[in-house]
Design goal:
With about 90 residues, the protein is an alpha+beta fold. It has a single domain, classed as Translation Initiation Factor IF3. It contains two helices and four strands. A four-stranded mixed beta sheet has the order 1-2-4-3, covered by helices on one side. α1 runs parallel beside α2. The protein is globular and about 35 Å long.
């Protein structure tokens, strides 16, 4: 019997996590929680407006064993793409 191929999560679009309007420490805490629920190789796209998120979100990702693939700031908004490691 042949089983259908599992989709490759590493190539799937990132899962969006909108944290705009939340203040420290909530963006880091919610990012950490979301990363714990991802399959290895899956990506998370985080949007935050808290100025401290530029420091806190990458630190939370690192502590969870994830890698920040990109980080960009546009005015008050910071966007991250984070890949869960496995």
């Amino acid at each position: 019997m042949l089983w259908p191929a599992m989709p490759d999560v590493s190539e799937a679009p990132p899962i969006a996590l909108d944290l705009t309007g939340l203040k420290c420490p909530l963006p880091a805490l919610r990012t950490r929680k979301a990363l714990r629920g991802l399959q290895p190789g899956a990506r998370l796209a985080v949007t935050a407006t808290d100025p401290l998120a530029a420091i806190d979100v990458p630190n939370a990702a690192r502590e969870e064993g994830a890698r920040v693939e990109s980080q960009a700031r546009d005015g008050a908004v910071t966007r991250f793409v984070i890949r869960a490691q496995g």
